[in-house]
Amino acid sequence: MTANSLQELYVEQLQDLYSAEQQIIKAFPKMIEAAQSDELRSALKEHLEVTRKQASRIETICQELGEDAQNEKCKGMEGVLKEGSDLLKEVSREVRDAAIIAAAQRVEHYEMAGYGTARTYATLLGFPDAASMLEQTLEEEKEADQTLSELAEELNVEALEAGENSEQESEQGSNRVKRSKKSVARGKRAA
Ligand SMILES: [Fe+2]
């Protein structure tokens, strides 16, 4: 599609986001299934429900514009999700939850960029209702990202410790000094 005006660009962005949400709805159940932590699983499940609502908000916005929501394939989200599913095939059980969080946070950030843009266009074009719906979705994506960051604090450290334990097992008899609490905290902050 060639967009010749900000409004056409806005519609194109909405369709792109709609495609992204549809792809997430398809991909998330696999991530939920792969997650080992109950907390992570329920956070992902909750976000899947929220995602369905977000997709229907875009349908409403497009309907009011007389446009079809389904008109684009978001190649960016396709790539982000493919990278995530490839990653999950490559990781061991010990770091799987950390990898799921890494993949899911990429998804959230990609969406946050798109919704921020669409919300700004809606405001500029004089669609305050659409702008507030898009703002609501943007806030939900930020919340999901925040929840994942909080879960990462715990689960990334578990992954770190699981790695250390298996290293220690293979270094039986060596008097290797355990990592200080300080370095674990540093790992937390890097999450
Ligand atoms: Fe979303």
Description:
The protein has one domain: Ferritin, core subunit, four-helix bundle (Ferritin), CATH 1.20.1260. About 80% of the residues lie in helices and about 0% in strands. It has helices at about 5-35, 40-65, 75-90, 95-125, 130-170, 180-190. The longest helix is centred in the C-terminal third of the chain and has 43 residues, at about 130-170. The radius of gyration is 20 Å and the shape is elongated. Mean pLDDT is about 90; it is low at about 175-190. Fe (ii) ion binds next to helix 2.
Describe the structure using short key phrases.
binds fe (ii) ion, 191 residues, mainly alpha, elongated
Write the layout of secondary structure elements.
Layout: H1 6-34, H2 38-65, H3 75-90, H4 93-124, H5 128-170, H6 181-189
Helix pairs in contact: 1-2, 1-3, 1-4, 2-5, 3-4, 4-5, 5-6
Bound molecules: fe (ii) ion (FE2).
Fe (ii) ion binds at residues 21, 51, 54, 111, 141.
Write a brief caption for the model.
The protein is 82% helix and 0% strand. The chain contains six helices and no strands. Residues 175-188 have low confidence and may be disordered.
